[in-house]
Amino acid sequence: MAYALERLADRGAETALIDLATLPAEALLGRRAEARVTAALEAVAGARVVVAGTPIYRATYSGLLKVLFDLLPQDGLAGKIGIAIATGHGPAHSLAIDHGLRPLFASLGATVVPSGVYGSSEQFADGQVAPELLQAVDRAVREAVTFAAAAID
Ligand SMILES: Cc1cc2nc3c(=O)[nH]c(=O)nc-3n(C[C@H](O)[C@H](O)[C@H](O)COP(=O)(O)O)c2cc1C
User: Fold this and answer.
1) What would the pLDDT profile of 106-122 be if each residue is shown by its tens digit?
2) Residue to substitute in 56, 123, 129 for testing ligand 1 pocket (most ligand atoms within 8 angstroms of CB)
């Protein structure tokens, strides 16, 4: 996620990272309002490009990501460009990008870039990120910037 945001910043974007795990669960579940969750939703609403990064849990995106998306209004991502990033222990669940994250984005009206990013544990060996994974992020960011410049609605 951080790498993707850095690459977007390199291309002139103002970026913000929202770490969902630090937000109050009661508000994420919609049981009460909380300023930090409201601010997160406003940040998404104001974004041109939304990068969703998630671990794969039980073969798809995390519940934590889902609850945030559930709080967005109908068509809340219309006119926005989505980048889908997931990490899983092994490669077996890489299709969660195409079967999970793409429809999740699309249900809210986002245009998702063609290149998804899926990293497995072995690509994070010895504290180093595999170059091909970083290249996949670079490609997805390039596509997002191209789409943004084309102002797809
Ligand atoms: C509850 C749970 C379920 C998981 N399910 C899967 C899975 O179905 N497929 C997979 O490849 N990895 C699975 N994993 C491994 C995580 O995807 C992996 O630990 C994560 O991507 C690493 O990111 P992190 O350092 O942010 O946790 C699971 C991990 C947990 C804790």
Assistant:
1) 999 999 999 999 999 99
2) 56
- pTM higher than the cut 0.90: yes
Q: Is 97 exposed, middle or buried (0-12, 13-18, 19+ CB in 10 A)?
A: buried
Q: Match domain 2-150 to its CATH number in 3.40.50.360, 3.10.20.880, 3.40.718.10, 3.40.190.10.
A: 3.40.50.360
CB-CB contact of 78 with 153 (8 Å): yes
pLDDT per position as a tens digit, 136-152: 999 999 999 999 999 65
Which tokens go with 60? 């798809």
CA 146 to ligand 1 centroid distance, Å: 31
- Give the span between the Cα atoms of 59 and 55, in whole angstroms: 10
